[in-house]
Specification:
Two copies of one chain form a homodimer. Chain A is an alpha/beta fold. Chain A has eight helices and six strands.
């Protein structure tokens, strides 16, 4: 597989960096091709502005997604964005490697998503999203570290259910773009771990990556499960953490 | 009330800007004091780095949250961060005004959270989080625009349940810091709205803000609902979208 790892951590001695290095080593040993976008090292600009386009379709007022659509058609992105789009379209597996900050990705990585996951390329008009998204046929995985303990992200845990926490990334970003989602790899409570535990985390990640091509993807709903009212059709059982039947409505509606 | 509005949109003619202007006008009419952080206009830097601290406790390797803790104790933040922390601590109501990008805030606003919601100030050692968080006694609200229609964010809608989408912000950011959360204000499907519909959105927002001091906050769990295993104690009924009893376990465990 061609693998793209997008990595966001400000410190080269971090455990995130060790996870990145582990993934690079193992994926290459397994015969995969790997590209890396090291966002901090690149000085990646995360702020979406009018300056992201070499020409404007609507110069009087910026509608960012509409300019993205035109730029997708006319190769009208600035070079830093186009280079990332090219990497994204070359990959068969996307891995985001980051520390979980405020239940999400660091701002520099959110900006990579805002600017690179462009309208007209990864989603857009004509029903281009979810299983019809621009990145369909590819897979994606979150690999992140936490300050918290795993029991805090159980369904009855302090922080709430892990897949609810990650819904905006798994469903709202990966799924929306057509990516099939693999279970995340989580390096739990890193600052409370000793050397042996960190080594065990790295070994677990290495073992996971050796079998990465054969993993099952997370359950989702294809577009065809939804009616013209954008709601699950009668008879379709909700099968994700973000979908459920409204209160008082039985499965058959 | 003292209100802080943090605003992120790159276009001064945007509908988000109209919502901001509406809130400024109405809140002042109602006798509130309002401060605004217009992140794009300020050129706010969203990227957390070692440069955010005027001195370092652990100079050999950056552990961002540990440096935040020391900076909170010793006023060791750079001026741009300290100015925002000061505004945050002055406010009784925080409003985030933004376009929903990838089920979340734009990167420039995520970076405002990453850098300003500092360890030692808004959360930290000694159980300083949720109802014991550093911002307790204050309220917060998301006010955002969407490209999608409201039915897409119903519990059986294409994008998933609205409060699952927003969990990382409502619970993971506001709640974690001690802020009590008001229902969001949503300007639905703005690019498909005509002038009359946009006017109606603005009127609805104005009406909402006139009564903002008397609204009920969203349901949450205090820290005391969780046991030493970080899980909901026996007998506590889950009452948020992110908490539920594990499969096969009855409410009493």
């Amino acid at each position: 597989m061609n693998v793209l790892i997008v990595y966001a951590h400000p410190e080269p001695r971090s455990f995130n960096r060790a996870l990145l290095d582990t993934s690079l080593r193992v994926l290459k040993e397994e015969g995969h091709t790997v590209e890396v976008s090291d966002l901090y090292a690149m000085g990646f600009n995360p702020v979406a502005t009018a300056g992201d386009f070499t020409e404007r379709r609507f110069p009087h007022a910026l509608q960012y997604d509409r300019e993205q659509k035109q730029a997708s058609q006319r190769q009208g992105f600035t070079d830093d964005i186009q280079a990332e789009i090219d990497k994204l379209l070359r990959c068969e597996l996307l891995i985001l490697q980051f520390p979980l900050w405020w239940f999400s990705v660091p701002a520099i990585m959110k900006g990579w998503i805002d600017r690179v996951f462009a309208n007209g390329t990864v989603y857009g008009a004509g029903g281009k999203r979810f299983d019809q998204g621009g990145l369909k046929g590819r897979k994606a995985m979150l690999s992140f570290t936490t300050g918290c303990f795993p029991e805090m992200m159980e369904s009855d845990g302090l922080l709430g259910q892990r897949d609810v926490i990650l819904w905006h990334l798994h469903h709202g970003t990966f799924g929306y773009s057509g990516l099939q989602v693999l279970q995340p790899f989580v390096g739990w409570s890193i600052q409370y771990s000793d050397e042996a535990q960190r080594h065990a985390h790295l070994e677990a990640y290495a073992a996971r990556l050796r079998g990465i091509g054969h993993e099952e993807v997370m359950a989702t709903h294809p577009l065809a499960d939804f009616g013209p009212d954008w709601r699950l059709k009668p008879g379709i059982e909700p099968r994700t953490v973000g979908h459920r039947r409204p209160e008082g409505q039985d499965a058959a509606r």
